[in-house]
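To the wet lab folks,

You asked to see what we're planning to order before we commit. Fair enough. Below is the target structure as C-alpha cells, and below that is the sequence we designed to fit it. If anything looks off to you, flag it before the synthesis order goes out.
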C-alpha cells in the first residue's frame, strides 16, 4: 500500500461509541465469569504449572546432589590416612565456649563461665564460630563433619549448602580487583573444587541457606587476614542466611572476633572408653576382625589408651590404631610410630 493511501485512510477513522460499549460489556462479562470460576481456573493453572515446578525442583536437587557428591570426594584426601570410607572413624567431639551472660542478678553467682557444646549442635548455636585448636587436633575434621551434617545427614538441623574454602589456596585463586566479597569467596571455593560453576555458587550464596567452611585462618598474613575479613563482613551483610565456621590457631583470630565471631575451643579426645571404639572402627575400615578378648589386642589397646591419657593428639591415636592392626607393632615414642607408618606407606608404592 502506498503511503498516500494510508494517510488518506487514517483521516476516515473515528470513535464508535456503540462498539466501545459493547466491548466493555463483553469484557465485564468475561471478568465476572472468570471471577465466579476462579477456583477452577486456579486449579487448572496449578495443574499446568505443577509439571514445570516439579521439573525445576528435580533440576535443583540434582545439581545440589552432584555438588555434594563431588565435594565429599574432594574432602576425603584431607582426612589423616585418607580412608576410602571415612564414616566409621569420624568421631563427634565437644567444644568449650563462653556461656551466655546471666539475665538476672540471681543468676550471676550460679551461672557457669563456660559451656561444653557437642558436635551436632555446633552450627546451630551461633551463626559465626571460629574453632580454635593446635594443628592436628581435628579442626579440619570438624568442618568435614559439619559439611556432612549440613548436607542432610542430620534431620534435626535445617539443610544448608556447604561451601568449602581453603585459605592456603589464596595465592592461586583468580581474584579480580573490583570484585565483590561474595565473588572473591566464590573464587576461593572454585579454586578448591574447580568443577564448580561460579555463577551457580554465587546464586546459592545470595539466595539459599549456606554453610561457609573456612579452613586454615592461621596460614594468612595480617594483611591477608584483613582482606578476607572485609569479604566476610560484606557477605554477612548482603547474604540471606549464612552460617560461618572458621578454623584457627589458639591465638591470632582477633579480626574475626571484631566481626562478631565467637571462639570455641576444641576439647581433647576422651581416652577412657573411646579408644576401644576407635580401634574397632579401624578394624571395620581395614576389613579385620575385632576380638577384644585377644591378648595382643588388649595389650595394644592398653598402650593406645595410655597414650591418649598422656595427651596424644587424635591423629596420633588414629595412626597407632592402624599401625597395630596392620602389623601388630606399637612403638613407644610418637616419632617412632610416625616413622614406622611412613615406612609402610613407602613400601606400598610401586
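Sequence we intend to order:
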Amino acid at each position: 500500500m502506498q503511503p498516500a493511501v494510508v494517510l488518506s485512510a487514517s483521516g476516515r477513522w473515528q470513535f464508535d461509541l456503540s462498539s466501545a460499549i459493547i466491548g466493555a460489556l463483553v469484557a465485564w462479562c468475561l471478568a465476572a465469569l472468570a471471577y465466579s470460576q476462579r477456583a477452577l481456573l486456579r486449579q487448572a493453572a496449578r495443574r499446568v504449572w505443577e509439571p514445570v515446578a516439579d521439573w525445576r525442583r528435580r533440576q535443583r536437587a540434582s545439581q545440589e546432589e552432584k555438588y555434594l557428591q563431588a565435594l565429599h570426594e574432594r574432602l576425603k584426601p584431607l582426612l589423616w590416612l585418607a580412608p576410602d570410607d571415612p564414616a566409621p572413624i569420624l568421631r563427634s567431639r565437644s567444644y568449650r565456649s563462653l556461656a551466655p551472660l546471666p539475665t538476672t542478678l540471681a543468676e550471676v553467682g550460679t551461672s557457669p563461665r563456660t559451656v561444653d557444646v557437642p558436635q551436632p549442635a555446633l552450627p546451630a548455636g551461633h551463626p559465626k564460630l571460629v574453632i580454635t585448636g593446635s594443628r592436628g587436633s581435628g579442626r579440619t575434621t570438624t568442618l568435614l563433619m559439619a559439611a556432612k551434617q549440613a548436607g542432610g545427614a542430620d534431620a534435626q538441623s535445617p539443610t544448608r549448602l556447604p561451601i568449602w574454602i581453603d585459605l592456603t589456596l589464596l595465592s592461586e585463586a583468580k581474584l579480580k580487583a573490583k570484585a565483590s566479597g561474595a565473588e572473591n569467596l566464590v573464587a576461593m571455593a572454585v579454586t578448591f573444587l574447580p568443577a564448580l560453576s561460579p555463577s551457580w555458587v554465587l546464586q546459592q550464596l545470595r539466595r539459599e541457606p549456606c554453610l561457609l567452611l573456612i579452613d586454615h585462618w592461621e596460614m594468612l598474613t595480617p594483611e591477608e587476614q584483613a582482606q578476607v575479613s572485609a569479604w566476610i563482613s560484606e557477605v554477612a551483610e548482603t547474604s540471606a542466611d549464612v552460617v560461618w565456621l572458621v578454623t584457627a590457631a589458639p591465638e591470632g583470630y582477633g579480626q574475626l572476633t571484631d566481626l562478631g565471631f565467637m571462639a570455641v575451643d576444641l576439647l581433647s579426645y576422651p581416652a577412657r572408653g573411646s579408644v576401644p571404639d576407635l580401634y574397632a572402627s579401624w578394624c571395620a575400615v581395614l576389613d579385620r576382625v575385632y576380638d577384644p578378648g585377644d591378648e595382643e589386642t588388649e595389650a595394644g589397646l592398653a598402650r593406645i589408651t595410655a597414650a591418649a591419657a598422656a595427651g596424644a593428639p587424635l591423629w596420633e591415636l588414629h595412626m597407632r590404631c592402624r599401625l597395630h592392626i596392620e602389623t601388630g607393632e606399637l612403638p613407644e615414642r610418637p616419632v617412632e610410630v610416625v616413622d614406622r607408618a611412613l615406612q609402610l606407606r613407602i613400601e606400598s608404592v610401586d
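Structural context that might help your review: The radius of gyration is 31 Å. Strands lie at 94-98, 114-118, 128-132, 161-166, 210-215, 242-248, 262-266.

Thanks,
Computational group
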